[in-house]
Amino acid sequence: MAPVTSLSDSVHQRLAAALSAALPQAGSADPLLRRSDRADFQANGILALAKKEKANPRELATQVVGNVVSGDVIKDVEVSGPGFLNITVADRAIIENLAARHADGERLGVPLKENAGITVVDYAQPNVAKEMHVGHLRSAVIGDALRGMLDFTGEKTIGRHHIGDWGTQFGMLIQYLFEHPGELAPAADVDGEQAMSNLNRVYKASRALFDADEEFKERARKRVVALQSGDKETLELWQQFVDESKVYFYSVFEKLDMEIRDEEIVGESAYNEGMPETARLLEEKGVAVRSEGALVVFFDEIRGKDDQPVPLIVQKADGGFGYAASDLTAIRNRVFDLKATTLLYVVDVRQSLHFRMVFETARRAGWLSEDVTAHNMGYGTVLGADGKPFKTREGETVRLEDLLDEAVQRAAEVVREKAQDLTEDEIQERAAQVGIGAVKYADLSTSPNRDYKFDLDQMVSLNGDTSVYLQYAYARIQSILRKAGETKAVAHPELELAPAERALGLHLDAFGDTVFEAAAEYAPHKLAAYLYQLASLYTTFYDKCPVLKAETPEQIENRLFLCDVTARTLHRGMGLLGIRTPERL
Ligand code: ARG
């Protein structure tokens, strides 16, 4: 692998050198480089620096210009306004940089980061014996994209699906199964749909019994105690619920075109054994205190009604442990056993108070520090097209599979309308890639902390900021490359570039910088925005610059080359977000 220095970094280095030559006392000052409409880049850092050093900004800027080594990367640099610098990059440098990226293959010359750490990503965490709904969508989609981006930068990621597989609700379910053996088919014998319908049936029947029959209620309560004390038979029945649910989870994740690994499904129950130790450590360190029999942690800043402090409950007065204890124990496991340097949680913003308290507790205990940090990417709610919380017409929560099926159906209509030479099988395959891509992209192109509207009409539209638009751009490029036949994509750095070629080339070169920024900020929407702009710049290039009908053979080859780098970049970028790029559409 041969890493390529981005043009932005090259320009930055040259300007920084010129700046410190002009103003040695300022040390290594940042010229503050930005992409700009007026030139390729603009440096805005000189004003503030001149002010600080009591120099005249325009004079300083002029001096910097005199010091800039130009010729290779920088073609032109001039002073503008009160002391900005406008920088134009040489055509040759653009094509040479892209040629080096092209030659590098899969990574497109993007370097791996130094000092990579280990990030444990907690995402895609449905609950056992319960249906997945639209609320589970974002965690899975965002978490998967974050992992894709982080892995690409060289960070090592470990997934944790903290599924809800423990709690008092299992008493009722297990007791029912105990009294009605055979109601759940063995996990090996069912598909996802059957698994969920079995679970639903058992859930409804046991709930009805629980509400109507006081004696059953009592037996269910005893069953909770048996479960908590590790009774063998009870645990076996519990395991059946977990296994049946996993069959169902896998079927939904497959529909979502997402790989979930069994060893990364580590639910709440996995931390049971460590919870007493967690409680002991917190009490010993004085982080948690006994209050009315319970073990709790108080926070000055966190208060509820009547200004009463709201505590985090580590252990209830009856000795039981809950959600917080499992999360605190999971932190110990992730930090000390998995050696994580970052803990990332992709969980609904409505749980942000829970995580604030859990993280602060872990900090006080010394499990989190400046070197090991935790973040919750609290994401917003999925709204219906009308802007209200997403519900069915009957006012029920929407099942995730139904939603995905509908997206694929809609996509099939779009694909069929456009398809000239596709068979029905091909249409169905594309429809899945387009429909699921549309759902993922709509989610990822919105800043995670904002709510977003689930509007299928908009999502599968060919125009506008949609994945379909990006997928079409990709497929169109592939079709041009096929049409080119024997004529190959070859870089010609000696050619003068048209404005649309320059704009496209400069943007292509910024791919790696964009992924790094988006990964560091946990902001997949920045990568999505980059890709959308890439497709738009490509469209302009395609309108303005004939490819196969260009004037000279060299120009044809060079434009095919720009097409090919664009396609590879789109493919890579979409892939990091978990979205397919079909070769034909
Ligand atoms: N299963 C939980 C829910 O559906 C989400 C778990 C989030 N992760 C965590 N470590 N608490 O609400």
From TrEMBL:
Domain DALR anticodon binding: 470-585
CDD domains the UniProt entry points to: Anticodon_Ia_Arg, ArgRS_core
Top EC category: ligase
Ranges spanned by the short sequence motif 'HIGH' region, renumbered to the chain: 126-136
Alphabetized InterPro entries for the sequence: aa-tRNA-synth_I_CS, Arg-tRNA-ligase, Arg-tRNA-synth_N, Arg-tRNA-synth_N_sf, ArgRS_core, DALR_anticod-bd, Rossmann-like_a/b/a_fold, tRNAsynth_Ia_anticodon-bd
Domain Arginyl tRNA synthetase N-terminal, residue spans: 9-89
Domain of life of the native organism: Bacteria
Location within or outside the cell: Cytoplasm
SMART domains assigned to the protein according to its UniProt record, in alphabetical order: Arg_tRNA_synt_N, DALR_1
Catalysed reactions, as listed in the record: tRNA(Arg) + L-arginine + ATP = L-arginyl-tRNA(Arg) + AMP + diphosphate
Gene Ontology molecular-function annotations: arginine-tRNA ligase activity; ATP binding
Annotated family: Belongs to the class-I aminoacyl-tRNA synthetase family.
Protein name, per record: Arginine--tRNA ligase
Organism: Streptomyces viridochromogenes (strain DSM 40736 / JCM 4977 / BCRC 1201 / Tue 494)
